[in-house]
Every structure is written in structure tokens, then in C-alpha cells.
Amino acid sequence: MLTDEQIERYQRHIALKEVGGKGQQKLLNGRVLIIGAGGLGAPAALYLAAAGVGTVGLVDADVVDLSNLQRQVIHFTPDIGKAKVVSAKEKMAAINPGVKVNNYQEWAHAGNITEIIRDYDFVIDGTDNFAAKFLINDACVLSGIPYSHAGILRFDGQTITVRPGESACYRCIFPGPPPKDLIPTCSQAGVIGVLPGVLGMIQATEAIKFLLGKGDLLTGRLLIYNALEMRFVEVQVSRNPRCPLCGEAPSIKELKDEVDTVTHCDLGKK
Questions:
Q1: pLDDT top residue among 189 and 246
Q2: Count of other CB atoms within 10 angstroms of residue 69
């Protein structure tokens, strides 16, 4: 049963027929992992804490840098030099001390990611490079854990939700990392500061909907957003029978670290 304090805190959720007291209890029992405590992870972490998701994990080995503050809104100027997972946990606790935050001050890699994600219901990919994005996709698909992918650069962002065994995975769309120097880095091309906020909040929404078991997830749909034109475009995607991970004759059966060919954008590290 919800306490009086919880009923007051979450009354706007409880008033929703799609949530109610039972739905809020599902959120309180939920476990979401965020890999990357930067631009995408920052708004996702704040909103998951505010929503009362009971356990949130944060994976990031980086420290707060002055150049992060233009978009990574969970970190403040006094946090410069502090571990991002520590800085983020402090803000989440200030919003909602009832949420348990597990910190993993390390980079996710083939040797540790399966162990990290195994205790979570849903994963949010807030990383900044293609090697990490393919690793997260592979680990979640092989472990059967749904997750939300997102990426941003300049004024453009994209996001999709993957339900292993049911919907297209990241490799169904992009079989492997792009060639080196094909896509500019964030420091080269830049990124508008509000862009990761839009995409990160969509990712948090997907996690909350999954925990509630309500609404339609972004499965089989790649949502593309252009901030300059204020336009959303949805592209239907299907499972690829030739996907090297989830296709009919998969060649990827165990995790390995891809060569980090290019930094996608400064979302989880400098």
C-alpha cells in the first residue's frame, strides 16, 4: 500500500486512470538502468526519479566538465570535477529521496555489461559513441531485456525502443558502425543544448510506459526529430531476417567490444 506521503507526492499520477495506485506501485517496484549520465541520461534520470521509479541505475565513468553544462542539465557548475554518477545521484535524491540510485562508476564493456543489466527491467542508452550503442543493443537482445536507443547531433535526434524477439533491433537498421570520419564528432559539428532534453524525456517516457504496461512503445518505429524545423518523422522498420544478431542465421552469439570508430555526440563522456 502507498503511504500518505506517497499518495500526496504522486497524486497527479494516481488521478490518471491509466496509472492509479496500482500503476504507481508498479513504478515503485520498477528498475531502470541508464547507461550514460550525460545529455540524454540527465533528463531521463530526473524524470524517472520524479516519477517514483523505485530503482534507477547509472553507469558512467566520467567526471563533470565545464563544456558539459550547456546540455547535461543534471550537473551544476559546482559539480565540475565530480563523478557524473555522484552528481546525478545527488540531484535525484533531492527530487525524490525515496528512489534508490545504484551507481556504477565505470564504462560499460563486453566484460561487465551483462552482469550490470541483468537486474533491471528496462535499459536506457544515453551513450555517446557507436561502439557503446552496438554493445548495449547486443547485450540487451542476448539477455532479453527491452531498451531505448537514442542519438543526437547538431539539431537532429533519433530514438527507437527495442523489445528483443518481438521488434527490430539496432543492428536490423544499422548492421555495424560507420567508417571512421564518416560522421563528425559532437565537438566538431556541435549540438543544440535542448536537443538531448527532448530525446531523453522520450526515453524516460518509454521506460515509464513499459513499467506500467500502457500505451504503444516505439517498437518498429524509428522516430526522427529535427529541432531547427520542429518536425518529427516516423519511419517504420521491421526485423531484418539477415540481421547478424536477431536474424534467421545470427553470426553474433556472444558480446565483443566494437572498435570505437567515432564519437556520436557528447552524451555520456567528454
A1: 246
A2: 15
Average pLDDT rounded to a whole number, residues 209-234: 98
Look at the pTM and tell me if it is higher than 0.70.
Answer: yes
Q: Do residues 183 and 235 lie in contact, with contact meaning Cβ atoms separated by under 8 Å?
A: no
Residues 166 and 46: their CA atoms lie apart, in Å, by: 29
**CB 43, CB 196: distance < 8 Å:** yes
In sequence order, what DSSP letters do the residues of 25-93 get, joined into one string?
A: HHHHH-EEEEE--STTHHHHHHHHHHHT-SEEEEE---B--GGGGGT-TT--GGGTTSBHHHHHHHHHH
Q: Which residues contact 240 (CB under 8 A, 6 or more apart)?
A: 168, 171, 172, 173, 246, 247
Contact call for residues 161 and 146 (beta carbons, < 8 A):
yes
Q: Note the pLDDT tens digit of each residue in 174-220.
A: 988 887 767 776 667 899 999 999 999 999 999 999 999 999 999 99
Nearest to 171 by CA among 239, 265, 254: 239
Per-residue pLDDT tens digits for 59-88: 999 999 999 999 999 999 999 999 999 999
Q: Note the CATH number of domain 4-236.
A: 3.40.50.720
Burial 18-43 (b: 16+ CB within 10 A, else e): ebeeebbbbbbebbbbbbbbbbbbbb
Domains of the chain: which residue ranges? 4-236
